[in-house]
Amino acid sequence: MMTWKLLYFCMLIGLKVNLSVAIHANTWSACECEWDSWKSWGECDSDCFGNRRRSRSVYSYCDKFTDCASNDEGFEWQGCNEVCHNGGSASWFSCYCKAGFHGSCCTEVVNCGTPDNVINGTRVWTSTSYGGVAEYSCNIYYNMTTGDPVRTCQDDFTWSGTTPQCVFAYQCNSSPCINGECVNLLGDFRCDCHDGWTGRLCEKDIQPPVVVNCSSNISINATKRTVRFDWTSPSFYDPLGNHLDIVSNYPTPSFVFPWGDFTAQYVATKPSNGLSAECAFNISVRPTPCEELNIPINGARLCNGWRADYGQFCMVTCQQNYTIGAGDNSFETMYVCGASGTWIESGPIPDCLVETESVEEALIYQPEYETYSFEGSCDNVTMTALQHLYLERIVSTGGFDELCTQFPDECVLDNVDVKCGATSR
């Protein structure tokens, strides 16, 4: 545009130069040529930086215009409307428009058109021209999510931002949560369920039965082979009020127990959701324990270190050159603690206080001395030998051998309890 107008301007300058020179044809005088006055200027061909033309005729006795002058001498051009509209600025026959106007002459007003409509809401606007403002709002119970509540008509013929969306935000009006509190969200809702309920609408029962007064583990000492024990049954309930099915491995809370370990189990099941709760506790029945036997001076006490809660079987040995008196129990005496809670033979274990100079002298007091005496202190070698002695005695003695035959995996050296007493020297 700028280049064309510049060239055209140069051409006009040339024409005006030609007119000023007023080149006449060679027959000008012979034809008695004479110029008529210029006619009025024609309309401008553009709203800005345009051109207009005017013409003139020639009087002569000749027939043709060219008998007086060339054809281009019959008209001339002139620039017109050398201005930009609506506050635009001119530069080299071009217009730079202010914001809100467009076109070669800044005559085209920017119009963004009607702003987009919003569903479930309203819109108002001051103008669709440049700088016009459109405002959006949502209907009752709807909240605005994406988009812009205020938009402005821009110089590029578009509205700023994006069209907002109005989303229903009061879903809780229909009270959808069956067993919980409803929280409104944008286009959705959330149910905060009460205890024992879950699910999208708090419709699913996840409450298990609740157990009350479940007993802790129980230990019983019996003076006989069996003992009757009564306990309090636990109770179960459902906070939501549903029926429960309750079963137990003991029909009544009373039973005659032998020695041993037992488990009382109660299970409550809720048929409406299949959940259950359990109360289980152990009942341990043991013989009444005896007081601990003393450890003999200058000797050792050998006892079973396994299944001691069901009974204890102990024997005595003496260090070499010491023995028990002839009036005391013999080395072959077993000290047994059973259900009665008392030792048979009754304690205490005699101390090895009789000092002897030789084996022969010791045999006078206790014929079994050589079998039940040990050398040196209670080091690891001596203790192992005493553990062997104890197991040989238990296995070979009727009535005591059940301690090994019934519990072979426990009847081993490491489970023999050896305690050595102090020396009198």
Summarize the structure.
With 425 residues, the protein is mainly beta. The chain has helices at 2-21, 359-365, 380-396, 402-405, and strands spanning 34-35, 50-55, 58-59, 75-80, 89-91, 94-96, 101-102, 108-109, 121-125, 133-138, 142-144, 150-152, 166-168, 180-185, 188-193, 197-198, 204-205, 210-212, 218-222, 226-230, 235-237, 245-248, 254-258, 260-269, 276-287, 299-304, 312-319, 322-323, 335-337, 343-344, 354-355, 373-374, 416-420.
Poorly predicted segments:
1-21
Beta content? 25-35%
Helical/strand content category: mainly beta
Measured as a percent range, the helix fraction is 10-25%
Major beta sheet summary: 6 strands, mixed
Give a verbal description of the structure.
The chain is mainly beta. The termini are far apart. Strand 16 (197-198) and strand 17 (204-205) form a beta hairpin. The protein has helices at residues 2-21, 359-365, 380-396, 402-405, and strands at 34-35, 50-55, 58-59, 75-80, 89-91, 94-96, 101-102, 108-109, 121-125, 133-138, 142-144, 150-152, 166-168, 180-185, 188-193, 197-198, 204-205, 210-212, 218-222, 226-230, 235-237, 245-248, 254-258, 260-269, 276-287, 299-304, 312-319, 322-323, 335-337, 343-344, 354-355, 373-374, 416-420. Mean pLDDT is 89; it is low at 1-21. The longest helix is centred in the first third of the chain and has 20 residues, at 2-21. The protein has five domains: 2-80, no CATH class; 121-168, Complement Module, domain 1 (Ribbon); 171-205, Ribbon (Laminin), CATH 2.10.25; 210-287, Immunoglobulin-like; 299-420, no CATH class.
